[in-house]
Amino acid sequence: MRINKLILILLLSTSALNLFAQFPKKSETNAEKVTIVHTAEINTAAETGKGRAVADSVLRVISIGGKYNVGVSVVSRSKINDKTPPDAIVHDAVTEVYHIVEGNGILLVGGTLDSSVRIPPSSSIVLKITGPSSTGKHIIGGKQYEVGPGDIVVIPPNTAHGFIELKTNMIVYTLIRIDTEKVLELKN
Q1: Helix, strand and coil percent figures for the chain, each rounded to 5
Q2: Do residues 112 and 159 make contact, with C-beta atoms less than 8 angstroms apart?
Q3: What is the predicted pLDDT for the residue at 33?
Q4: pTM above 0.85, yes or no
Q5: DSSP code string of 99-123
Q6: Which region holds residue 13: left if phi is over 0, alpha if psi is between -120 and 50, else beta?
Q7: For the chain, which residues make up each domain, given as ranges?
Q8: Which architecture characterizes domain 36-179 according to CATH?
Q9: Which class for 96: exposed (0-12), middle (13-18), buried (19 or more C-beta within 10 A)?
Q10: Which helix (H) or strand (E) holds 77?
């Protein structure tokens, strides 16, 4: 009797293992969903922005399982006539992650926008680049951070931010936008 139970347990275990082997592993099913942005594409986008006050080149916006969107951009900011152009914005729902690639600057984070103006919700800037946002003349208050190559900055939603001084003629950073409201249009 004991041998029969052992054989039955062994058969059931083997059947269960065979059944699980038929289903692909979760990591195998997501392999085709991976997005890679190569250095050459990042460098080309950075070159496009040289000499412009700001160039935000959206390279991809992908859906993550329909739960949220992730945007990948390259942003170049340049001095104009040896001055840093005004930069003050706040995003309602998008978290931004900067990775500084080139140049140095002073980033002001927090505080409030002076003379805040809502970007129209149907504008291409909102739908393709920033998500729901407001801009201002400058930021009142906040905290200053000097950033340079290799630094990573995470800016949560509803946080005023902007470069108040470029220490070099240009700063370039990759920008990951986490869009939990799925406002940004998908782009492959």
Answers
A1: 25, 40, 35
A2: no
A3: 82
A4: no
A5: EEEE--EEEEESSEEET-EEPPTTS
A6: alpha
A7: 36-179
A8: Sandwich (2.60)
A9: buried
A10: strand 68-78
DSSP β-bridge partners for residue 19 = none
Closest CA to 178 of 115, 95, 58: 95
pLDDT of residue 59: 97
Cβ count near 142 (within 10 Å) = 19
How many Å apart are CA 183 and CA 166, to the nearest integer? 30
d(CA 46, CA 126): 21
Residues 6+ apart with CB under 8 A from 122: none
Cβ–Cβ < 8 Å for 172, 102: yes
Mean pLDDT by 10 residues, the chain (188 residues): 45 42 57 88 93 95 96 97 96 98 98 97 95 96 98 98 97 98 95
Q: What is the pLDDT of residue 1?
A: 52
